[in-house]
Amino acid sequence: MLKVRNLSISARETLLEGMNAEFESGLVYGIVATNGSGKTTLLRILAGLTKAQSGVVYLEDNGEKLDLVTTRKKIFYYETSDWLDGNLSALDYLKFVNASWANNGADIDAIIKYWGLEEFVKVPIRKYSLGMKQKTILAMYAASNTDYWLMDEPMNGLDDANQKRFIGFMEEAGKQGKCIIFSSHQNDLLHDISDKVHYITNKKWMDTAGGI
User: Residues in domain ABC transporter (predicted)?
Assistant: First the structure.
């Protein structure tokens, strides 16, 4: 279980105050928030990439807090296609992620087929469209085979067919026991695929649009 206790986020101003939350295995969590409300910073903190100004975030297993090395092997977060190196290919990234997080335990060929990457998987990423880059990132989540997936606007650039594929991908991952936390502006779709939806509103973490 991923636990958050008394977390506050500040930039030029306070974005989030006193967040307390628990994220359980096998559930999909949606985060609804406007731009500039702190959702990307929150995901970075949950992933261990950014230090919280106050509060704590940690993984717990059978009542025991996990150490940092173990925690980072259990969480996968790839924020944006801007992080991709244009000189590498989707296959390069899938092999790296599979080796680094899943100890080569994921079926790369099956992942490539599921996301329809066959035609461009060995092509340099600088030649990819936004949709191709986004499918590569989602395929990387499958290649990581981690217990916790953190996603920032994961449907960015996906056409209708691939949005449907994404929904199936999330549903199957949840059945496999993954804990998935993702943000989106598409509120209606979030309700369709999330077990729980949270809102960042007026600097507060809320379970509904109107109240904590």
Answer: 2-212
